[in-house]
Amino acid sequence: MIENKTGYHVETASCQRNHKGEFICGDAFLSQRLKQENRTIAVLADGMGHGVKANVLATLTSTMAINFVQEHKDAKTIAEIIMQTLPICSERKTSYATFTIVDVSDNEVNILEYDNPQCLIMRGGNIFEPQWQCLLLENVDTEGRSREIMTCSFTPMKEDRIIFISDGVTQSGMGNDDMLLGWGRDAYVNFVQDTIRNERYISANKLAQRVVNKAYSNDRFASKDDTSCGVIYFRTPRKLMIATGPPFDKSKDTEYVEKVMGFEGYKIISGATTAEIFSKHLGAEIIDDYENLDPSLPPMSRMEGVDLVTEGVLTLNKVINILSNNKASEINRRSGPADKIVERLMDRAEIHVVVGTKINQAHHDPSLPVEIEIRKSIIKRLVDLLENKYMKDVSVEYL
Which tens digit of pLDDT belongs to each residue from 253-281? Predict the structure, then answer.
């Protein structure tokens, strides 16, 4: 795991709602972490109109932006290439997509915006105003669309947040008796300020959901436009450890238990044999919890000194299925063992996994379901999801 020199974790999340009646969002949010460079890149693009056509245009824009920013192209070059690639609508004479690009490194944030509502930057509970610059596009056909690109750079601090939105947020509620011209930027900014002041350490995921849900309620729960919010939060990393499987060598049991119990963060034991090792060394009883049940899984358990105890292979497989088939903002908060693990994973920035490599002979029974894989394969799939889809910092240790 790469240690961030600044002492904060860059937490990235988004939430979206489709235009009423559409099955796909006309906005696109993409994010990527470049571990070797300690960089995080996030892009929010708003395709013209709504539905499939808008989604294709927004996805094209956001994909190009991610690729160009990775190559360290300057803001003006990035904007000009995107604008040259995206044509002008023959009917409306406007751009096919607008976009916001946020590039975060250890010591600097660079933001580039084209026709999206201006980013809101919060320093704690207060608004932070960077020095915005206006660049004029010169080498593209700008007939009928803006030539202005807004950019800014600043040094981030712990507890900073960058909130960037599509215009479905600020224009929500338009036409209602109480907001004829829409929610508007001032009311939106006040809402974000109040939310942060009332919940100082609110996660990026929850803040993005609050903004989009408020816009949705403004539209009386029938969105009149695609509505998106992305949040980048510079926070103290919250940590979680998963211990699964007994060590290959039984003499390592004590080291295994000490490693987990000495960890400062949320502790999960996944696996009945693993739990028995901890129970024996800690002298702690394993107590089954029948209140939070999932009919497809064995019940979770409680043990003093550990936050959560679950069955192993089946539960981790279901965790992978939940993570694979959902976005962070769409994950339902249920009470089963796999759901509890997913909920904790979403709330933590640094995930440490300790994997015992002793083979459980039960998993080689050919009569068991095909999806039951050996432990290493399950952990590899879990790590890939957490790192690439959910932008978590993950480390794995085998014993």
Answer: 999 999 999 999 999 999 999 999 999 99
Under 8 Å CB-to-CB from 3, ≥6 apart: which residues?
none
Q: Both 193 and 63 in a single domain? A: yes
Q: What gap in Å lies between CA 124 and CA 128, rounded to an integer?
A: 9
* Alpha carbon 88 to its chain's center: 32
Tell me: the pLDDT tens digits for 308-355? 999 998 999 999 999 998 776 666 667 789 999 999 998 898 999 999
User: Is residue 3 in some structural domain?
Assistant: no
In this model, does residue 93 exceed pLDDT 70?
Answer: no
Owning domain of residue 273: 239-398
What is the count of structural domains for the chain?
2
Q: Are residues 110 and 221 in the same domain?
A: yes
Same structural domain, 287 and 391: yes
Q: pTM of the predicted model, to two decimals? A: 0.83
Whether 163 and 63 map to the same domain: the answer is yes
Q: Which amino acid is located at 322 in the chain? A: I
Residue 134 forms beta bridges with which residues?
150
- Measured between alpha carbons, how far is 237 from 158 in angstroms, rounded to an integer? 11
β partners of residue 43: 30, 101
